[in-house]
Design a protein that fits this description.
The chain is α/β, with parallel strands linked by helices and 377 residues long. It is built from 13 helices and 19 strands. It folds into two domains: 109 residues, 3-Layer(aba) Sandwich (Rossmann fold); 168 residues, Dihydrodipicolinate Reductase, domain 2 (2-Layer Sandwich), CATH 3.30.360. The strands form four sheets. It has a nine-stranded mixed β-sheet, with helices on both faces. A six-stranded parallel β-sheet has the order 3-2-1-4-5-6, sandwiched between helices. The chain has a two-stranded parallel ribbon with strand order 8-13. It binds L-homoserine (HSE). L-homoserine (HSE) binds next to helix 7.
Length: 377
């Protein structure tokens, strides 16, 4: 299968190297503004050299960001080419449109590396969603924040130093705000929920609270209480209502999620027949992510068609039903029942995700300081 590769950064570079070892996958042309001496493929700065090349069967987009990735993916699908992407931002934003384009052109569209890095999570989720009813998906979906929280927990490392190291390892986004504020995990939750439940939820409906205000005092208080803090993405469906959010959550030391460290992700699905299944592996980094992109190409070369699902019912998110206890450390007055304390934070009674996130947003808007963490069961 001839591939047109868009981008040769961390993921694209790893994909290119791994593809050289595959007999059936040939990177014919690379889109790059710069000349790339030493590469075996043709290099062009003009996307039309790829879209209009009848010998190119599949376009691999690893540019990241919304534009021009959106225009290039659309053009490739319209031209009847298959598309593989690791770009969660563009898939999350244009989910319905890409599904429609793939449906009408009959081309294959895959984005397994867009959620879970090197883990075949979306592929597995889609297999299960075809034979079972999925109740929830939940887990660590961002390698950068997991790396930072693990370093802060294990060696008392400083937040800023740990972020720099995550950038050096190729885990963090170009602008790491998306990682540390939870937007990257939110995009992965949206894509996963869409595939799991056959819906299309607006990303604006999914509240996010990240780890940028987590202090070493918070981490110490959690450690003293036998807890470990993780940034968690969650989506569930109950009585036809979908809940979804991204927030820090505390787990008992010794649990599988607490023991998932560094750049690793762990994602657990719960379904009516297969019950509970967890998937774990490196969630970021060039080689694991590039390998997952290559795995999508191999599936397509072997005849995979369409998207994981062709169902995308427009649905909204209702977080009023999901209730949990929270750790809250804030400069503001807490308007909820307080049932205890942990370090300099308060423990609240069960509060809905919507009420807690609305409170946290208001505190931030008013210029106050706040860190929250749900307390896992
Ligand atoms: N910045 C992302 C992360 C890369 O840290 O998980 C993989 O999607």
């Amino acid at each position: 299968m001839n591939v047109g590769l868009l981008g040769i950064g961390t993921v694209g570079g790893a994909f290119y190297k791994l593809a050289l070892e595959q007999e059936n996958i040939n990177v014919k042309t690379l889109l790059s503004r710069r000349e790339r001496p030493g590469l075996e493929c043709r290099v062009t700065p003009d996307i039309n050299d790829i879209i209009n090349d009848p010998e190119i069967d599949c376009v691999v987009e690893v540019l990241g960001g919304l534009h021009p990735a959106y225009e290039y993916i659309s053009a490739a699908l319209k031209a009847g080419k298959s598309v593989v992407t690791a770009n969660k931002a563009v898939v999350c934003e244009y989910y319905d449109e890409f599904l429609d384009l793939a449906k009408s052109s009959g081309a294959a569209f895959r984005c397994t590396a867009a959620a879970g890095g090197g883990i075949p999570w979306l592929e597995s989720l889609s297999r299960i969603s075809q034979l079972d009813e999925i109740d929830s998906i939940e887990g660590i979906l961002n390698g950068t924040t997991n790396f930072i929280l693990s370093a802060m927990t294990n060696s008392g490392a400083d937040y800023a130093e740990s972020l720099k190291e995550a950038q050096r390892l190729g885990y963090a986004e170009a602008d790491p705000t998306a990682d540390v504020e939870g937007f990257d995990a939110m995009r992965k939750v949206v894509i996963s929920a869409n595939v799991a439940f056959g819906v299309s939820i607006p990303k604006e409906d999914v509240p996010c609270f990240g780890i940028s205000t987590c202090s070493s005092e918070d981490i110490k208080a959690f450690r003293d209480a036998g807890k470990v803090c993780k940034l968690i993405g969650h989506a569930s469906k109950k009585d036809g209502k979908i809940s979804a959010c991204v927030e820090p959550m505390l787990f008992d030391k010794g649990s599988a999620t607490a023991g998932t460290e560094g750049g690793y992700n762990i994602i657990t699905l719960k379904a009516k027949r297969v019950m509970t299944q967890s998937f774990t592996g490196l969630g970021a980094g060039g080689d694991p992510t590039g390998a997952n992109v290559l795995a999508d190409c191999i599936s397509i070369a072997n005849g995979a068609k369409g998207f994981y699902t062709d169902k995308a019912v427009r649905s909204s998110v209702d977080n009023s039903v999901l209730k949990q206890n929270y750790y809250v450390r804030t400069s503001a007055e807490i308007p909820f029942e307080i049932t205890g304390e942990m370090g300099s934070g308060a423990i609240t009674g069960k509060e809905s995700v919507s009420d807690m996130h609305a409170f946290a947003s208001k505190v931030r808007k008013d210029g106050g300081s706040i860190f929250i963490a749900a307390i896992g069961e």
